[in-house]
Amino acid sequence: MWLLSPAPDVPAALNHSIIAPDKSHGPKVNLTWSEPIKANGIIRNYTLFYGHEKDPQKETFGKDTLSYSVDVLGGLTYQFSVRAVTIKPGENVTLTVDIPEYGRFSFLLSM
After folding, report:
1. Any idea which fold 14-109 has?
2. Mind listing the pLDDT tens digit for each residue in 45-79?
3. In Å, how far are 1, 52, 73 from 28, measured between CA atoms?
4. Is there a contact between 84 and 39 (Cβ–Cβ < 8 Å)?
5. Domain ranges of the chain
6. Which of 6, 40, 83, 96 is deepest in the core (most CB within 10 A)?
7. Residue 27 zone, left/alpha/beta (φ > 0; ψ -120 to 50; rest)
């Protein structure tokens, strides 16, 4: 008889910080998450879904990766979701982030 393992809990935390554009890069969102409180097995990877209305993206990371930086566009709202995966995918923890609109030349004025 096979024992069915439940899927992992959601990652315990999903946090973000917005990194303003400068001379070398546009705006970014730095994401960090924590391992699920109950893994219900061995975590194989984490899956990140993100994007704004018309640009969904998906990234998969190894079990030891608990952060990622995403290039974003100013003036848009992004949704980020992360889930842990064992032999089954867990539920997503989700975060919505409004990215400020940065003036085209605002970073040039600070040079």
Report:
1. Immunoglobulin-like (2.60.40)
2. 999 999 998 778 999 999 999 999 999 999 999 99
3. 49, 13, 8
4. yes
5. 14-109
6. 83
7. beta
